[in-house]
DNA sequence: TCTGGGGTCCTAGGACCC
DNA sequence: TCTGGGGTCCTAGGACCC
């Protein structure tokens, strides 16, 4: 093999534009341009069609005619009762100040006439798989970052270096749009950190190319919060030190940042501000944990709502078990999460000698965890988690070779099993 | 105006072992 | 009697991301 000069790294970040809302508009084009909010419970399309059939019996309604459902049939935000947050909102709704993660009740005051659609993750996942398949057909090194985002390594892809990546980015955009009608924004830069910021520059439908020499002009004027990894807490602390932009962050000594933000995070902040990031685009990753949680319609009490809580608890355990089994994993760290009426959260977990994906075993251990928390306060949320995952087959093999006696328990498990605590809803 | 659900990673103390 | 480090695992909480 002849020596080839090392190519400069070209990393792309692709972000689907208003993904959930755009997918919904494919089904309901009649809502285009109207303020629409997505969130608050899940309603199946079948249920909606049944209701429609009842209210408008003059014709037959099938899933082929979603685009003909009259706009006045859709529920509006002001009629919504119950809790929850908005998952996303169309541009028309955002003009009223409505945005994702906002409480429904607040959104209803800002834009009472907004149409309300329930989230339909199955539908979004369907389009998610499709656009990722299209990308993989063009560029094989792709990292999954959730339903609507990916990183792509352009470096060795044909055309990936042309015009800094713009040619390949255009090709991917066109491929996705032609197949789905959906648009996306792409940023291409020397690394993931900058690419992520660049993909936001020209939304929607934009392509932004950032070269190493563009750091000062394009990146340094941005607020620190634009760095993926600087959240509200870190941003507030930075501001308290008079640091608002990435450029101001870059002008601080590395040692000063380490002193105030810790060895690891401080050094990382310094690297980030100087546009340094060597993380590779990772094409495969194994899950670490799986969980299910639910927020109740009203806060529940462990004693007074014992039956209801017990049923929810069992269901969560069954759902996690089903998720594990479906994906072929077992885990040995079983945990619970509670959120009290004052919004404070606590977690408890316990590690078993053997990994499991069995609903009864999960419920048994999660029940032990429940005995270790305060159950006198009303509960707003309950969750069940299984961590320390391994592939189901691998676990079986290792157990076999290590000859662990069946029924072995960790000391912590044995201790908590002996604990005499009052039975509440478990 | 009260604030979803699913994740990952980091920190820090204590247990336990060598 | 007082006093070592280092490594790993477990547990709880919190920041952050999509």
Protein described:
The chain is an alpha+beta fold and 426 residues long. Among the domains are: 19-120, MutS, DNA mismatch repair protein, domain I (3-Layer(aba) Sandwich), CATH 3.40.1170; 220-276, DNA polymerase, domain 1, CATH 1.10.150; 289-414, Dna Ligase, domain 1. It has 16 helices and twelve strands. A five-stranded mixed sheet has the order 5-6-1-7-8, with helices on both faces. The chain has a four-stranded antiparallel sheet with strand order 9-12-10-11. Strands 3-2-4 form a three-stranded mixed sheet. Helix 13 (306-327) crosses helix 14. Mean pLDDT is 91; it is low at 401-422. It binds a DNA duplex (18 and 18 nucleotides) through residues 39-40, 83-87, 101-109, 119, 145-149, 228-234, 262, 264-265, 287-295, 333, 335, 343, 345-351, 380-381, 383, 410-412.
SSE blueprint and pairings:
Blueprint: E1 11-16, H1 19-27, E2 36-39, H2 45-55, E3 86-89, H3 91-94, H4 104-110, E4 115-117, H5 121-138, E5 142-144, E6 149-153, H6 166-180, E7 184-189, H7 192-198, E8 207-209, H8 215-219, H9 232-240, H10 246-250, H11 254-261, H12 263-273, E9 289-300, H13 306-327, E10 329-340, E11 345-356, H14 359-370, E12 379-391, H15 392-402, H16 411-418
Parallel strand pairs: 2-4, 7-8
Antiparallel strand pairs: 1-6, 1-7, 2-3, 5-6, 9-12, 10-11, 10-12
Helix pairs in contact: 5-6, 11-12, 13-14
The chain binds a DNA duplex (18 and 18 nucleotides) through α4, α9, β9, β11 and β12.
